[in-house]
C-alpha cells in the first residue's frame, strides 16, 4: 500500500531509542523527512546517519521535554530544518514506576509538565500550520494503561490518561481542516523501557527477571512480546493519506492482551 506521505515532513519526539525511533524509521522509509529529538546527541546523530544510509532523509535536535524552553526550541527547529510540518508524533519517556500511594506532588508536577503540558502546548503551536495547508497528522503515543491500568505504573496511568480526553476534543476541532488526531497504545513491545520495567517488577516481587518476563508473555494471547517494527508500521499507517477518515481514535497494539472489548 502506498501511504501517500512521501515528501511530507514529520517531527518525532523522544526518538533517540525505542518506539519513537521505530516510528521515525518507518516514516523515513515512506519518504518522509523526519526530524527527531532527544537528550543524547551521540544517539541522535547515529540514528540520523542510519536513516540516511537506508535512503531516508533525517535531521535531529538535542532537546529535553523537561526543559521549560522545549516548545520554543521545537518550533525553531521545525522552521529551520523542515521548513514546515505535516506530521507530529507526540512521544514521551515514561515516568518512574510506583504505586498510587507513592505519588507525591513534586513527582506529579514534574512529569505532568513533560508528559502533558509540553505535548499539548507544542501541538497547539503546530496545529494552525496544518490547518492552513489542509493536511496534518497528529499522533500521540500513550500506553495500554489508559484503559486498563498497569500495576506499579500509577504515574503513567494517571498522566497518559489525561491525554485521552484532550485528544478526542482536539480531533473534533481539527477534522474539517483535513487534520487528524489519534492515539496509539502500545502493549508489551520489546524495548529497553520494557526491560527496565521488568527489572523493577522483578526486584519488587523478589523474583527473577526471567520469571517475570515468562509470566508476562503467558498473559498475552499472541504469546510473545511485540516488535518495535510492527508497532511502528501501525503508527505510520495512522499518519498516512489512506487513514484520512480515522480521527479521535485509540489504536491498541498489544497482541490481544487487553481484556476489555
From TrEMBL:
MF GO annotations: 3-oxoacyl-[acyl-carrier-protein] reductase (NADPH) activity
Pfam families: adh_short_C2
Xref: CDD domains: BKR_like_SDR_like
Key words, A-Z: Oxidoreductase
Keyword Oxidoreductase (UniProt): yes
Entry EC number(s): 1.1.1.100
Top-rank lineage group of the source organism: Bacteria
Assigned protein family: Belongs to the short-chain dehydrogenases/reductases (SDR) family.
Record protein name field: 3-oxoacyl-[acyl-carrier protein] reductase
Organism: Rhizobium rosettiformans
